[in-house]
Amino acid sequence: MCGIYLQMNTILDMATQYQEILALLTIVSAAGFVFGLLAVSRVVCWLPATYFVGYGTPGPAPKLLRRRVRVVKNLAGLVLIFIGLVMLFVPGQGLLTLFLGIVLMDFPGKKKLIIWLIRMRQIQSSLNWIRKKKGQPPFVFPDRSTKSRKTGNP
Which domain holds residue 22? Predict the structure, then answer.
């Protein structure tokens, strides 16, 4: 019992010593939470309702984006991923924010990862809940029973 008392005293001493740092972390956490909610809802409503339909099927080669637009899009995705990681430990929708950061970025293996993620009912319902709140039509997701071409697994 004495060990717990000493640990609590140590934690309280640290809290009083580093009040400014704790206050700054609280402000950053609150600002990240608000920014994350605003950014997530903006990105979810920005995507077309049929964004995930046929996502894994190859289509015509996309038009080359201007370099600046591509850099900004990847930076926004990176920021959302960072905020999503922080939200895993503080209040917020961490997994959904991580998912949207992945959707925005360009990297090898992105399509396979997104296909795996959008088959999760929790992500589907969260995305459509946000769209419903903003007056947008729900996403149309591929059928869960559709089998993968390469492995033959759902």
Answer: 2-52+68-133
